[in-house]
Structure formats: structure tokens, C-alpha cells
Amino acid sequence: MRINSMFTIRVLAFLILASGMTSCSGGSSTPGGGSGFTPVNPTGQWEMQGVDSAGNVTVIETNLAVNSATSFFANASNVIVIDGVNSGSQVLLENLGLACDNDTTGYDSLDGTFTSATETNFIFSDKGPAGSFQITGGITFNQGATNVTSGQYSSPAACGVAADTGTITGVKVAPFSGTYAGTLNGGADVVIVTVTEDTNTYSFTASGTDNGAEFNLTGNAMGGAWTASGTFAGQSTTVVGVYDPTGNDFLVYSYPGLTFEGYLNAGSNPAAAVKPHKFVGRHQ
Length: 284
Fold this sequence. Notes:
Blueprint: E1 10-13, E2 44-52, E3 57-68, E4 71-74, E5 80-87, E6 90-96, E7 108-114, E8 119-128, E9 131-141, E10 147-155, E11 164-172, E12 177-184, E13 189-197, E14 203-210, E15 213-222, E16 225-232, E17 235-244, E18 249-255, E19 259-266, E20 279-281
Parallel strand pairs: 1-3, 6-20
Antiparallel strand pairs: 1-5, 2-3, 2-11, 3-4, 4-7, 5-6, 7-8, 8-9, 9-10, 10-11, 12-13, 12-19, 13-14, 14-15, 15-16, 16-17, 17-18, 18-19
């Protein structure tokens, strides 16, 4: 899915960023009824991966909601994009925004319609300050709505990026819970944090210590990622966390700017051995 001017891997993270949002807006209902089939219910947190015609990978983080008997969505306030570079077996996460977004958020949305119990069509719209375009395609869920078993997309030329096509798969993500620890800010901050999520609202809390001083961050979970704001290291801040299932850890970025700060690994020992990472920060 070539959507940046450098034709690098794009990592699409459909995130709930609006502070205080409790869920996807636009109404909700249980799929089914009057359509001749009963669709599976995709409501919840998802991580999807796409591969474009050149073999580049796209990771999509989203909280999906349904808004009619046969449709689902993620609106503009629920979308963020992080682009990156393929680094062998790893994905190097870098910058925010789609091709038309100028490294900003809040311009993108997703709308999907079931054509059978598991098959869908979708439109992903980007309406950024530099222009707009739509990515179209379809995805197929499994019967339990825990996986996207197959999919495809087509993106037009827009904002300096050539037209392209690719494939999509995905998996439903469990809500965040547990204790994580590590060093951030170039090792200056030794952090131990407990993360919790309200499974009904996707609201997210990170409470812990930074060099022994207590902090509390609140925000929203979104697919395999979260954003949270509060006072950290003595300063008001907003951070973005991206979950890495390979190492059971979080990459932490300051926001805006998406500057990589470090990893929080599972457990309460900041000096514990680090497992392999699938996602890596740009300063690695």
C-alpha cells in the first residue's frame, strides 16, 4: 500500500486519539437481519497487515464498530497513520500521516459493508491538508470474527504517490492489561507501569513510576496501540504506544512528532532481558 512519497512500508494504525472518547461514534447495532444472511460481528480491536505489489508491509490498528445490520466503520477521529521502513524481518516505524496528511492525524476514516456473512467491501478515505484519495477493496472474516483470513485493496495515485494494489490479513487483539517496565528517553527514565483498559469504552490508563516518581496517563486503546496524556518526567506529555506481539512489549513514542523513546517490556524489572522485536523505533 504505497501511500508515502518514499514508497516505504506504511503502517496504518486506526487509533482512537480524541481525549475523553469512550467508543466509536455513529451508532451501533448487532449485524444481521433483513439481508438474507447474518454477518459476523467484527466489533473490537484489530491488527491487520497488508502487502503491496512490491512486497511492502502495512500494519493496520483499529477499533471496529458496527452501525447497521450489515455495515461497520472507524470514523476520522479514530484514525492515525504511522509509516515505516522494511528492515529485514523487522518493521522500522517512523512518521505519522498518510500521503496527504502532512504528518498529522484526524483526516482518515473507514467504512465497510458486508456482502455475505463473512465477506465485505470497504472504502478508506483520506482527506488531508495536501489533498484526498480513497483506498477501496474487500476483506473476509472467519466465522468467529477473530481473524481476517484474506483481503485485497486498490489505491489510486494521490499526493505524489503512484497507484498500487495489495492483499490484507488480520487478527483480533486482546484488551491491554498488565505490568511493563523499561528505560525511556535514552535511558534517562526508568519506568515501571501498569496498563489497564476498559473493555467497553476502550479507555486506557497507564499508572506507575518514573525514576521512582509516580505518574498517571490516560487515553484510549486502539487495536494494538494506544495514546495517553498526562504528566511524565515532570512535563505534560502525550505518548503513543504500539504493541509488539513478538516480544510482548510496547514501543513508546512522544507525540506529536513520533519520536521513539524506547521499549516497555512485560514484567516489573526494567533491566530484564529483552525479547526479539518485530517493530523497532527509528533510532534503533
